[in-house]
Amino acid sequence: MKANSPASLPRLSQDGPSGGTRLARLRVDLSAIQENWRFFKKRAPSAATAAVVKADAYGLGAERVAPALAKAGARVFFTATLNEALAVRQALGEGPQIFVLNGPQSVDAELFAAANITPVLNSMAQIALWNARGPMALHIDTGMNRLGIGPEELAPAAIALKDAGLALVMSHLACGSDISHEMNARQRARFIDAASLFPKAPLSLAATGGALIGGDYHFDLIRPGIGLYGSGGLDGGNPTLAVAATIEAPILQLRDVEAGESFGYGATFTAAKKMRTATVALGYADGYLRSLSGSGYGALSGQKRPILGRVSMDLIIVDVSGCADATPGTMIEFLGADAKLDDIAALAGTAPYEILTTFAGAVHKNGART
Ligand SMILES: *Cc1c(COP(=O)(O)O)cnc(C)c1O
Fold first, then answer.
1. Atom of ligand 1 nearest to the CA of 139
2. Which residue's CA is the closest to the ligand 1 atom numbered 3?
3. At the fourth CATH level, which superfamily is domain 245-365?
4. 227 CA to centre of ligand 1 in angstroms
5. Which of 81, 177, 187, 287 could form a disulfide with 358 if both were Cys (CB 3.0 to 4.6 A apart)?
6. Helix/strand/coil percent split, the chain, to 5
7. At residue 159, what are phi and psi to the nearest 5 degrees?
8. What is the dihedral of CA 173, 243, 53, 45, to 10 degrees?
């Protein structure tokens, strides 16, 4: 046998129950996600509560998250793209309504109808493309200037659409994360104005932030996303939600380092005193943002353990001085109950959305899952 033929290679080892190729581990708490969905349902008693599961349920795995939400009572789901919707349809079966926020592209309009997926129509071109071939939603732009029918297109859109066929008329708040932002009231007023052209359609304006502003923003359907996954999505004053995602990574090595020694690429951190450090199998290849260099932390036995120096591709160094629990193989938490999503996002200089899609998304794909 040739030495380098595939048959002579050793088998890949499996890291965990659904072992990926990397050592970081994501635990998704489906009951926490259900609890958070119920929190929003209670907040909006006069509206229906949908579930936004775009981007693979914000990185956590739509194939498990969507059925758990359906079990909790969700009947309406939103994805960004058709392919995401098809995966969710496969996970949910027939019954729940699935909206695609980005709407149909020219190539896939037939596929929407075949899989009973409802497009959100965002432009006159999409209205023409869809041609009322089945249920549809209409997105009205009320000031975000991203997607949706603008003010000058409203009248032609109302003529082109059959009001009776509209499953939903929706808009999206630009500043929903800031409850007191004057933009919210302005968008709400524009939404009510525009929606008067579609008197029979159910209305939806609020995502997570909007749902937290209050009943004036709930209309017929709220569309929480980030809130289901554990962050209130507000710039400040977030409600306490259940922790949906926990990410841990194992210690590979421990070192006792003298004062004056420095750590990692660029030698950006120098020990002022003798330290015990752990080298951990986690890096930006796991979606752990490099901007957490020198600012992030892991949690071990409930205690915050600062990251020393730069995050590298597959490794980080953590200060475990005075910690008896640290041994090779010990798992350190980098997202979860002791390393809170909103806190880690703030330290990384980003939003919880990016931490979930980037970090949890990468570990979901490549790490071990429990
Ligand atoms: C992403 C998105 C949502 C959900 O937003 P969250 O802030 O995550 O709750 C709702 N509606 C639209 C149009 C979206 O793009």
1. 13
2. 207
3. Lyase, Ornithine Decarboxylase; Chain A, domain 1 (2.40.37.10)
4. 10
5. 287
6. 35, 20, 45
7. -70, -40
8. -60
Residues in the chain: 370
The residue assigned the tokens 């943002």 is 289
Ranges of H-type helices in the chain: 30-43, 54-58, 62-72, 82-92, 109-114, 124-130, 154-160, 182-195, 208-213, 341-348, 352-354, 361-366
The second-level CATH assignment, the architecture, of 25-229 is: Alpha-Beta Barrel (3.20)
Tokens of 313: 């591709």
User: What distance in Å separates the CA atoms of residue 187 and residue 185, rounded to the nearest whole number?
Assistant: 5
Measured from the Cα of 208, ligand 1's closest atom is: 9
- Please, where in the chain does CATH 3.20.20.10 lie? 25-229
Closest Cα to residue 207, out of 167, 245, 240, 175?
175
| Residuewise pLDDT in 10s, the chain (370 residues) | 445 555 666 665 554 445 689 999 999 999 999 999 999 999 999 999 999 999 999 999 999 999 999 999 999 999 999 999 999 999 999 999 999 999 999 878 889 999 999 999 999 999 999 988 899 999 999 999 999 999 999 999 999 987 668 999 999 999 999 999 999 999 999 999 999 999 999 999 999 999 999 999 999 999 999 999 999 888 888 899 999 999 999 999 999 999 999 999 999 999 999 999 999 999 999 999 999 999 999 999 999 999 999 999 999 999 999 999 999 999 999 999 999 999 999 999 999 999 999 999 999 999 987 7
